[in-house]
Amino acid sequence: xxxxxxxxxxxxxxxxxxxxxxxxxxxxxxxxxxxxxxxxxxxxxxxxxxxxxxxxxxxxxxxxxxxxxxxxxxxxxxxxxxxxxxxxxxxxxxxxxxxxxxxxxxxxxxxxxxxxxxxxxxxxxxxxxxxxxxxxxxxxxxxxxxxxxxxxxxxxxxxxxxxxxxxxxxxxxxxxxxxxxxxxxxxxxxxxxxxxxxxxxxxxxxxxxxxxxxxxxxxxxxxxxxxxxxxxxxxxxxxxxxxxxxxxxxxxxxxxxxxxxxxxxxxxxxxxxxxxxxxxxxxxxxxxxxxxxxxxxxxxxxxxxxxxxxxxxxxxxxxxxxxxxxxxxxxxxxxxxxxxxxxxxxxxxxxxxxxxxxxxxxxxxxxxxxxxxxxxxxxxxxxxxxxxxxxxxxxxxxxxxxxxxxxxxxxxxxxxxxxxxxxxxxxxxxx
Length: 431
Prior knowledge:
The chain is an alpha+beta fold. The protein has helices at 3-27, 50-60, 76-88, 105-119, 138-146, 213-229, 265-275, 292-303, 320-327, 330-335, 369-374, 385-399, 407-410, 415-425, and strands spanning 65-74, 93-98, 123-129, 150-154, 173-176, 180-184, 205-210, 250-257, 280-285, 307-313, 339-343, 351-355, 359-363, 377-383, 402-405.
C-alpha cells in the first residue's frame, strides 16, 4: 500500500477517534451544582418573598415582567382547538419551533393550516429539530415549501457534526403575529389528541400567553433560526412595538434554557425552586431521573417540612429504559420523605413545577440530565397565585388517577426489576 495512502488512513482514524471520544465525553457530562447556600449561613429566600423573584431573574438571566395573560391548557382536547384557531387567524406571521412531529391526522391538519396561511400572504417560518421530526416525509416538506412556508432543520445529524448530535432542540415555540405564544410538552402526533385519561391519549399541559413574555419567546425562535438558517431575524413583524409599559396581569417570563459547558439556566432554575420552597413543592414530569445532587435537594426540602410530591409516568410509559432509571431513584427519595405517584390511565407527558401556591414553571423541561445539561429547552415561569392555583388543581386531580408508591411495598418488588434498574442507571446521563 502506498505510504501516502497509509498516512491518510491513519490521519482519518485519528480524526474519527477524536470525534468519538470528544463526543462521548460531552454526551455524558452532567451539571455541577451540589448545594444552594448563602455566605452568611442564612437560609435561601423563601418563594413567597420579593427577594426570591429578584434572585431568579439574576440567576437565570430572565426579566420577569407584569402585563401578561396566561391560559393553562390541559390535554389535546383543550390544546389543539385553541392552537388551530390562533394559527388560522394569523394575519402577518407564524413562527414555529418544534421538537417532535410524526405523520398522521394532526400533522396533516397542521400542514393544511400552514399552507393556507402562507398562500394568503402570511410569513410562515417552521424550524424543526432534525432528529425529532425525521419521520416527516420529503413530500410533506415540499408541499409546505411550494406554498411559501420557510422550513429549516435544526442540527441535521451529519457525520462531521456528531459532537452536536446529542444537543437537540427540545423547544416548543409557537408565536402568532408576534402577540400570541404557546409552549409546553406538546408535539405533532395523533397520540396528543384526546382527554389524557385514555390509553391512546397522552396527558399534557401547555400554556397560551400574551404580553411581554411573547417577545422573549419569539427571541428563542430567532436564536434557533439564526443557527440553523444563518439568518438573524429582526423587525416589527416579529417584535411588534407596544404603546405603553406593561402593568397588571401576570408577572411572567419566557426562558430559553440552553446547554453550556458549566451550570445551565435550567439547572439553576430548578435548584433554586427546590431550595427556596417553604410549604409545597409539586413536580409533574414525564422523565424524572434526578442525579445525586437533585435527589439531595428534594430530600432536604422534605426534611425541612415541605410537602414534596412527584407525579411521573406509570406503566404506560413510552420508554421503559427511562422508567427503570426513574425507579432506581425511588428508594432513596421515599426514605427521605418525598412522596411519589405514577399516573395510570395513559402516558403522562407534562412538565410542570408549582411551589408554595405562587411560583410555577411550565414548558419542555424534563427532570433529567438531558434537559439540564444537553438540550435546548423553553419554559414559561410565572409568579402568580391564580396560575399556581390552576396548576395545583390539575396536579391534585392527576393524583386521583395515579398510584402512590409506598416504601414498604416498594421494597418487595421483584429481583428482576432491581436488575433492570441497575442496568438503566448506567445510561442515566444519556436519558
